[in-house]
Amino acid sequence: RHGVQVALVPIGHVSSVMFDRERRWMITTGDVGAYRWPMRTAGDLITIGPPVAVHPDTARLTMDRGNVSSDATIVAAIRRSDRSLMVQSASEGQLRSFTGQSKISSVAVSPDGRWIASGTRGGIGVRIWDVETGQTMQELPIELDATVSFSPNGKLLGVSTRKEVSFWSVGDWTRVHGLFRENLPTSGTVS
Asked: Can you give the pTM of this predicted structure?
């Protein structure tokens, strides 16, 4: 059936819902934290849950927008209380806080899980983080509020602001293309 509500998951306000490429996991972030929901398929039936906290600490944090690597082993989300970036790697099991950028409002994880990009609202810049080290690798010269998104093949980073949509080469972080907007009141999402 299409377009018909078949279930309601009582988990409060949800900011993001994400899926891994193989559709084995649904990941949610919101008022009750960040959770991985196992998904099983049998014919036309999809069973979701029960949920498992991405990390025990994320069950106690109110999380805003999030994003995952294509295999869902890297989960990044914005902590609502201070707009900081929280990252959890399934292989490490630890929850890390990436610090140094304020007012984060947008986050994207590269499909291979190597990079995280973060944009701000009311702040300045787009920051590129190395997932392994947690260090800033690059700051893109974006002077406005920005949303970020990696291309499915991981070769480009899209950055959307009120003034333009720009595309950056992943790895060397050079701007390869830009499309200017005319008279748009807000930025939009690149996908």
From this structure: 0.83
